Amino acid sequence: MALFPISSAFEGDFCLKLVAVDTENTMDEVCAAAAHHSVNRSVAARPGHRVRVRRQGHPDLLARDLKLADTGIAPMECLHFVFEREEG
């Protein structure tokens, strides 16, 4: 377990945000941390959607249960957070 800084580029936000997460966090937990700093602050909530993450410049979303420590993401790397419609 180690504190780990990432840059959050949240869909619809007007600026990057520095977010502290933990290396043992899953991508769902990283998304929740990023959302805490953007959703209902500078980005409107989207009911029926969940937040997902991908590396900046990469098309594929990261698996929701993947731990940050297992991704190869570097400290301060910019991650792109997007809304995905939840299947109901």
Architecture overview:
- With 88 residues, this protein is an alpha+beta fold.
- It has one helix and four strands.
- A four-stranded mixed β-sheet has the order 2-1-4-3, covered by helices on one side.
- A hairpin with a 6-residue loop joins strand 1 and strand 2.
- The protein is globular.
- The relative contact order is 0.29.
Summed up:
The protein has one helix and four strands; from the N terminus they run ββαββ. 22% of the residues are buried.
Q: Which geometry do the CA atoms define?
A: globular
Radius of gyration of CA atoms, rounded to a whole number? 12 Å
The multimeric state of the shown protein is single chain
| Distance from first to last alpha carbon | 34 Å
Number of strands: 4
Q: Please write the string of helix (H) and strand (E) elements.
A: EEHEE
* Averaged pLDDT: 96
Number of helices: 1
Structural class: alpha+beta
Biggest beta sheet summary: 4 strands, mixed
Q: Strands of the biggest beta sheet: in what spatial order?
A: 2-1-4-3
Q: What are the low-pLDDT stretches, counting only 5+ consecutive residues below 50?
A: none
Helix content: 10-25%
